Amino acid sequence: MLQEQTLWIIVVEILYLLLLGFTCLRIVFDTRSVSKTLAYLLFAVFVPIVGVVFYFSFGINYRKRKIYDKKLNVDENFKKEINELLKAHDLEEAIHNDTVLVRFELLIKLLANKKSGGAFLLPNNNIRLLFNGENKFSELIKDLQQAKHHIHIEYYIYENDRIGNTIKEILKAKAKEGVKVRVIYDDFGSKGIRRNIARELNESGVEAFPFNKIKLLLLANRLNYRNHRKIVIVDGIIAFTGGINISDKYINDESQTIFWRDTHVRINGAGVFALQQIFISDWNFCSGQRLRVAGNNYFPFKNMETYGNAKLQVVSSGPDSDRPNILFAILKAIQTAKSEILLTTPYYIPDESLQQTLVMTALSGVEVKLLVPKEGDSKLVDSVSRIYFEELLQAGVKIYLYEKGFIHAKTLVIDGMLASVGTANLDLRSFDLNFEVAALIYDKEIAEQLKNAFYDDLKQTKQLFYTSWVKRSLGRKFLEQVLRLISPFM
């Protein structure tokens, strides 16, 4: 009996070693990031069973595994139609006719390259920065109420609260008027509306679909691929994007205990076409429908030149893109800086390329300022973010902790000439796992407005200094080194 038990133990150990060997090979061949590869390998080897289960639950790179193969094929065909449409109407702005565009020529060409997203440079935009939910929602409601042809909405978080129900009633009313209303919501981030608002919208003539409906067996894997985009399009001529979801917590009134600082952007003009393309691609994927370009008035060109003078590129990335396009955009923008970089993010957990680019840029004499929350919505994430501060501070990066409340904006200003407003945080999840979008605006006036907002925010901050930061306790430094090992999983 004892020999039989020993034999079974040996068989189980051999099977586990084979599984571990297979897992390690899978990690090496299927994980792009070196730091993440090493982290998964260490976890799998030194935490038996749990490490293997964790990798297969959270670590599989489905960009290579082609879980979105169908979406990639649909997107590619749709992009071809869009490209022909935009070229036919001569919407590509000549770079050399604009001093700002000349300044960022290499960045523009990088993003316009088909191999890195094929983001068209779109002119004739009127752009308005919207600070905080109370300003964004008043503008959004007004535009929704004036919709004549269609409303397209895509959000990570849509909550069943006051503002969520206010917008729901507007959408129902517009659908009753004959306006075509389509809504995409992330099935995890907006899980609170699945049995109420989403159902009510569908019953009232609005089409509402979850992006990747969560099923119990696929729960662990799908949570790693969230649709973090925030997009609204009205009649193909007005669009909104940025950091603000549909939730009361973004509205700073007497009902809120925490001040929520965020930034959104309203676009009126040709730039809307890029966000429309992203929405329709996502819609065709999650609804199973096939909305087309021609004959639907989703891309109205009439009087487009009358809206404004700002030029922009809209960049998207996620498991439906071959490369981390938003990370590439940020890295290239930083590399073009000559005098000043202003970065705002609620979460700073960078990959090595971003961390080292900021370090080298600061060492080159460029003024680099990073604004993050003093206290975020996760103490663990806050702690992991802090492990990168010492290297930044030593290189001369100035770091500011926002104390008034929670700063949730995801913005970038380069040399007072380029402004970026988007949905992506400066973390590995945003760059590699989530579906994200960002608007890069080549306009001095908008960049100056965003710069002024940044410096207004600094009035509510505490600056960190290298001389005091290095005096942290040994216990805290040890904890940071431990957390560094798990940072690739955050």
Structure overview:
The protein is of the alpha/beta class and 490 residues long. The protein contains 20 helices and 19 strands. The strands form three sheets. Strands 4-3-2-5-6-8-1-9-18-16-15-10-12-13-19 form a 15-stranded mixed β-sheet, sandwiched between helices. Helix 2 runs antiparallel to helix 3 and helix 7 packs antiparallel against helix 13 (325-336). Residues 62-67 have low confidence and may be disordered.
What is the element layout, followed by pairings?
Elements: H1 2-30, H2 34-46, H3 50-59, H4 62-65, H5 69-88, H6 99-103, H7 105-112, E1 122-131, H8 133-145, E2 150-155, H9 162-177, E3 180-186, H10 197-203, E4 207-211, H11 219-222, E5 231-234, E6 238-242, E7 260-261, E8 263-269, H12 272-287, E9 310-317, H13 325-336, E10 340-344, E11 348-349, H14 352-363, E12 367-373, H15 379-386, H16 389-395, E13 398-402, E14 406-407, E15 411-414, E16 418-422, E17 426-427, H17 428-432, E18 436-442, H18 444-458, E19 461-464, H19 466-469, H20 474-486
Parallel strand pairs: 2-3, 3-4, 7-14, 10-12, 11-17, 12-13
Antiparallel strand pairs: 1-8, 1-9, 2-5, 5-6, 6-8, 9-18, 10-15, 13-19, 15-16, 16-18
Q: What is the general shape?
A: globular
Largest sheet: number of strands, sense, barrel closure: 15 strands, mixed
Distance between the termini: 47 Å
Query: What is the mean pLDDT?
Result: 86
Number of strands: 19
Classify the secondary structure makeup into a structural class.
alpha/beta
Name the beta content range. 15-25%
Unreliable segments of 5+ consecutive residues: 62-67
- Count of discrete alpha- or pi-helical segments spanning 4 or more residues: 20
What is the helix fraction of residues, given as a range? 40-55%
Rg, Cα atoms, Å: 23 Å
User: Strand order across the biggest sheet?
Assistant: 4-3-2-5-6-8-1-9-18-16-15-10-12-13-19
